[in-house]
Amino acid sequence: MKFFSSALTGLLLPLLLPSTASAAAITAQKTALPLSTSSRWILDASGQRVKLRCVNWAGHQEANLPEGLDKQSVEHIADLIAGQGFNCVRLTYSIDHALNPDVPVAESFSNAAGAARVSAADLNGIYEQVAQKNPFVGSATTRGVFESVIKALWDRGVMTILDNHVSKASWCCNIDDGNGWWDEGFGYNDMNSRYFKTQEWLQGLEAMATWAKSQPGVVGMGLRNEVREWLLQGLNARDDWYDYMTQAATRVHGANPDVLILIGGTQSSTDLTHIRVNRGLDFSGWAGKHVWEWHAYSFTVTFAAALGNCDVLKQAYGLFDGFVLEQGRSYTAPLILSEFGFGMVGGPNDGLTDNDKKYFDCLKDYVTGNDAEWALWAVQGSYYVREGNVGAEETWGLLDKDWAGLRNAKLPEMLAPMFQVTQGP
After folding, report:
1. Burial, 13: exposed, middle or buried (Cβ in 10 Å; 0-12, 13-18, 19+)?
2. Beta strand pairing status for 389-390 and 385-386?
3. C-alpha to C-alpha distance for 17 and 26, rounded to whole angstroms
4. Taking 80 as the threshold, does the pLDDT of residue 24 lie above it?
5. CA separation, residue 242 to residues 186, 374, 401 (Å)
6. pLDDT band at 128, cuts 50/70/90?
């Protein structure tokens, strides 16, 4: 079958997510690995379609740990994720962690206090809560915690995609955070590239790929979250993007041929137009493993010209990203919406504001029409520290501040159409 980026399927029957117990039982039926790609589809080891229905779990900030372990045990959080029917987690990490994975957890929190410029006593208090909820961390390293998270997820049939979110462990993203574009690329500027050390990035990806071979349930690796040009960067026909993404994918595939390789466009993973209008990316070196990724929020500048008109917005989604789903093209490959989200409470529309409801309804219509892969931002209801705020609450989080349950009980109903599988090879 052939699907163009703007094509929409007919009306979909509503699907209510199963209860926590039954959903966990479903996800415990593990997908046959490794995954591979064929045209625009992701397939399991038996050649059957796998639709990735994921949630993001942040682990890329100063503590270099998956968030929330001060609130609940790893197993409790994994139960909640599986119980909502997700079959995948996009687990984020920093290059700081990739190159220094053996830091004791207690030391990591002490280091985080200095990096985040917050009180050491406050973050030591967070560590004590983590150790109370998860006693194993007393003798664990940050790498050991990532391993425990991945294992708990896979025990419940939930796959993991490792996403390199940043180089310097910190919140993402701002144009002045130094994590946006390769420091060896054309048009270097300190504001956007001072921490994005190209060679360290390549080494870190290769190290993570090598380690991931020993982690059942890791099915993919995102090469870099939200690369973004600033000033002169990218004006050389985005040659740096082609060069460094190819180098990275080649190294990851060489270290771990089993994992899918996710590559996003520029302008914060919203713009892939250069592979259509300039030149394609040759992904024959990792054939059968290539996946495109894109992001879309209500505030995304790339799509701002649509002025909120849904028909125009869906055309923009297709023009900038969704075109890669058209079969038979040199760039055809699966496409995952690896970040989207909205504030979960406070609005008049089952918790959503009018603007967020309009945005989500339109995006949902586009994604379901193409029966595409996706990953909600995000599971975390709080952070150890975010932008200097210890214990910051995430109002966009799937879970509440205590990570005890859903922040918005209506969310499963709102997401239900996106869980359906309506197309296939």
Report:
1. exposed
2. antiparallel
3. 11
4. no
5. 12, 24, 40
6. very high
For 106, the token pair is 């207690």
**Contact (CB, 8 A) for 327 and 2:** yes
Q: Considering only CA atoms, which of 312, 305, 273 is closest in space to residue 292? A: 273
Percent with pLDDT over 70 in the chain = 93
Longest pairwise C-alpha distance within the chain: 59
Residue matched to tokens 């967020």 = 356
Instruction: Please state, in angstroms and rounded to a whole number, the distance separating the CA atoms of residues 75 and 133.
Output: 10
User: Is residue 378 reached through a cis peptide bond, with omega within 30 degrees of 0 on the bond before it?
Assistant: yes
* Token couple for 97: 């962690």
Helix axis angle for 74-83 and 142-155, nearest 10°, is 40
Distance CA 375, CA 159 (A): 12
Secondary structure of residue 327 in the 3-state scheme: coil
For residue range 40-83, what is the model confidence (pLDDT) as tens digits?
A: 999 999 999 999 999 999 999 999 999 999 999 999 999 999 99
Contact 338, 295 (CB under 8 A): yes
Q: What are phi and psi of 98, to 5 degrees?
A: -55, -35
Q: Which residues, in sequence order, are CB contacts of 78 under 8 Å at separation 6+?
A: 149, 152, 153, 155, 156, 158
Q: How far apart are the first and last CA of the chain?
A: 7
What does the pLDDT look like over 203-213, one tens digit per residue? 999 999 999 99
Lookup: tokens for 376:
């909600």
At 28 the pLDDT is 64
Per-position b or e across 194-226, b if 16+ CB within 10 A of its CB: bbbbbebbbebbbbbbebbeebebbbbbbbbbb
Is 57 within 8 Å of 378 (Cβ atoms)?
yes
User: For residue 335, which of 253, 416, 264 has the smallest C-alpha distance?
Assistant: 264
CA 423 to mean position of chain CA atoms: 23
Tokens of 286: 């990792």
Q: Where are the alpha helices (DSSP H) in 156-221?
A: 190-193, 198-212
Predicted pLDDT at 2: 29
Model pLDDT for residues 240-296, shown as the tens digit of each residue: 999 999 999 999 999 999 999 999 999 999 999 999 999 999 999 999 999 999 999
Q: How far is CA 229 from CA 96, 168, 266, in A?
A: 22, 18, 7
Give the pLDDT score at 22: 36
Signed CA dihedral, 122, 128, 132, 136: sign only: positive
Cα atoms in the 13 Å half-sphere on the side-chain side of 206: 13
For residue 18, pLDDT beyond 60? no
